[in-house]
Amino acid sequence: MFKVIMLVKKKDTLTKDEFIALWQAHSQKVITFKDVLRINRYTKTFPLPADNAPATQRETQAFTFDAMGELWYESKEAFIQARNSPAGRQALAALKKDEQKFVDLAHSVMWLGEEERIV
């Protein structure tokens, strides 16, 4: 499966609750475009508060993002075809405009890759 992962920084002007509410509304828009964009799966993950997170027993950097979003597609080709269609471009423009209300795009990270399912 082809996958898009976004590590999201919220706009500084928003509280955590405002950010979550805006992203929830945005998710409903994503659902309306899921067929046009050929999205197979969509998830959001919010980090646990540092004082409530179990120990990882790893010496890694702290997660400094406000959330993570993931989108799955059947293949890289399906992802590209959906985005290159007129309806796909229109859907992406609407979603990006909406994201700009709550996501600090300049400080967020998006990456694309092939998922290898192990278990």
From TrEMBL:
- The residue ranges crossing the membrane are none
Record's Gene3D superfamilies?
A: 3.30.70.100
Q: Under what name is this protein listed? A: EthD domain-containing protein
* Residue span, EthD domain: 11-105
Pfam families, per the entry: EthD
So which domain of life are we looking at? Bacteria
Q: Which organism is it from?
A: Exercitatus varius
Recorded hits in InterPro entries, A to Z, give: Dimeric_a/b-barrel, EthD_dom
